[in-house]
Structures are given as C-alpha cells and as structure tokens.
C-alpha cells in the first residue's frame, strides 16, 4: 500500500508540475502576444517635456527607426556602412563623383580604394547634402615623400567650403591649424591621432550646416570630428569657409552642397565613404 500511495503521489506531483509549466507557457504566450499586438506602453499621466507635445515616458511618441548599424573597418578590409547610409564610394567605381568642371572622375580605382593620380583633379560628388554624419577612410603615401604641407596633402571639404585637412602628420610637423584633422586655417585638432603612412585612417564627422536668412548668417556651421576613433573637435563653431593665409568668412549659400576631395598633388588613397542625413527627433 505504501508503494501504491507513493506512486499516486508521484503522479499527482508530475501532473501538478506539468500544469504549472503549461500555465507558465500560457502566461509567456500572452505576454509575447501583447508585445506583438501593440499593448499600451509608457504613461499618459506624466508632465509634458518643455517646449514639446510629448510627456515624460510617453508611450505614444514615435518609435525610432530600426537600422542595421554596420560593422567597423580593419586595416585589411573596410567595414559595412549602416543600412540607412548613402554610399558615395564602395571601392568599385566613381559613379557618384565628377571633376570640378563636371567631367567624369579620373582618379584610379583598384583593390577597393581610389587613389589620386598625377593631374587627377579634385573630385566632387554629383549630389549635394547638408546636415550629416560623414565617414571617410584615407591612407597617406608609403614611403612618405616631402615635409610639412608637401607630405600626403589632401582635404575633405564639406559643401565645397568647410575643410577637414588630410595630411601625413606622423612625425611630420606643420602649422597646427593645417595639420591632419584640423579644421583648416581655424582650429588644430585637440590631439594628433595620426597613424603611420600607408595605414588606413578614419574620419567620422558630424556636420551641421550654417543657416542664412535674407542673405545674412543667422547660425554658423558646427563640426564634431573623430580621427581614428579619437575626438579631435567637439561641436566646434566654424568661423567660415576655408581660406589660405586669410581669415575665414561666410558667404550665403544653399542648404545643401557637394562633398569635395582635394587633389593637392599627392597620391592619397580613399575608401569606404558614406554619409547619413541627419534629421530631428521624432521625424519619420
């Protein structure tokens, strides 16, 4: 009888345990269904945030767009751009570029990069853009030739006006507001984060375009720049368009402009160039 009672108790325990498991799976299923079915999230009884229509923790506020963030580059291979990026150069062709006089681009393309050839001319994107996150990778010539501004010189010029200098400043001094990663003629980088000649380097740039009204500047441009992952400009107020041996100044222009890669006579290489258009919060 004890053996029978023990067997019955065991069956009851197993049945009870199975019931708990089924109930747990049911609750999980309800929760998952609720999440997928647009259940209420957030709060509707909290204060409104200043200057806007959304409450603190407002569940009806638009959800951020979901993107694939891409991958980081290595010395061996470029990374994958974010899924919402506009790719300007993927290592295969120069279809997004032209010369400064509108002719087909003449830079050399091979092995996943483009290189400035002799008399290649400055490159300009066919399409303009404004506020952006910009990613550019470059490598200065190896072995290096020349000194000062004559060594690995080029430039990333946003809107054709606002330049982040490209230069070989690995053990090569020049005037500080003209060295690699400087906002040319205005601000030296906070630190010199240059890699050796021939190694791939990265610029990650956040650019806010200037605003003009009735032909007058109402808001200057701003630049935040990371050089090889290191912050070298922190929301710096741009003083005007680039200038050599002169003060920068603003002249009114459109809200969008082309990206320019400068030919300064040195065989600098570029790869993996893309940008993301910057929008405000809660925009589609």
Protein model, in words:
This protein is of the alpha+beta class and 284 residues long. The protein has a domain at 86-277: Exo-inulinase, domain 1 (Jelly Rolls), CATH 2.60.120. It is built from one helix and 15 strands; from the N terminus they run αβββββββββββββββ. It has one helix spanning 2-36; strands at residues 86-89, 97-99, 108-110, 113-115, 123-125, 132-139, 154-158, 162-166, 201-208, 211-213, 216-219, 222-227, 230-237, 259-261, 269-277. The strands form three sheets. Strands 1, 3, 4, 6, 9, 12, 13 and 15 form an eight-stranded antiparallel beta sheet that branches. It has a five-stranded antiparallel beta sheet with strand order 2-5-14-7-8, with no helix packed on it. The termini are far apart. Mean pLDDT is 90; it is low at 1-36.
Give me a quick take on this structure.
The protein has a domain at 86-277: Sandwich (Jelly Rolls). The protein contains 1 helix and 15 strands, in the order αβββββββββββββββ.
């Amino acid at each position: 009888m004890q053996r029978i009672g023990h067997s019955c108790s065991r069956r009851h325990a197993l049945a009870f345990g199975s019931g708990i498991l089924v109930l747990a799976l049911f609750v999980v299923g309800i929760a998952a269904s609720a999440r997928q079915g647009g259940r209420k999230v957030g709060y509707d009884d909290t204060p409104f945030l200043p200057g806007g229509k959304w409450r603190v923790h407002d569940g009806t506020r638009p959800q951020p767009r979901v993107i694939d963030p891409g991958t980081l580059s290595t010395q061996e291979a470029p990374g994958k751009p974010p899924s919402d990026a506009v790719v300007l150069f993927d290592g295969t062709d120069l279809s997004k570029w032209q010369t400064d006089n509108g002719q087909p681009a003449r830079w050399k393309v091979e092995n996943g990069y483009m290189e400035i050839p002799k008399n290649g001319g400055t490159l300009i994107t066919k399409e303009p853009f404004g506020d952006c996150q910009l990613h550019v990778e470059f490598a200065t010539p190896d072995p290096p030739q020349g000194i000062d501004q004559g060594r690995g010189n080029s430039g990333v010029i946003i809107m054709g006006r606002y330049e982040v200098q490209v230069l070989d400043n690995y053990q090569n001094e020049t005037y500080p507001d003209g060295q690699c990663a400087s906002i040319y003629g205005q601000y030296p980088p906070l630190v010199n984060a240059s890699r050796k000649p021939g190694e791939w380097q990265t610029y990650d740039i956040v650019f806010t375009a200037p605003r003009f009204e009735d032909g007058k500047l109402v808001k200057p441009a701003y630049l935040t720049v990371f050089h090889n992952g290191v912050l070298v400009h922190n929301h710096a107020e741009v003083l005007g368009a680039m200038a050599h041996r002169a003060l920068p100044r603003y002249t009114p222009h459109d809200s969008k402009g082309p990206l320019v890669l400068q030919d300064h006579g040195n065989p600098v290489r570029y790869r993996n160039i893309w940008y993301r258009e910057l929008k405000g919060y809660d925009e589609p």
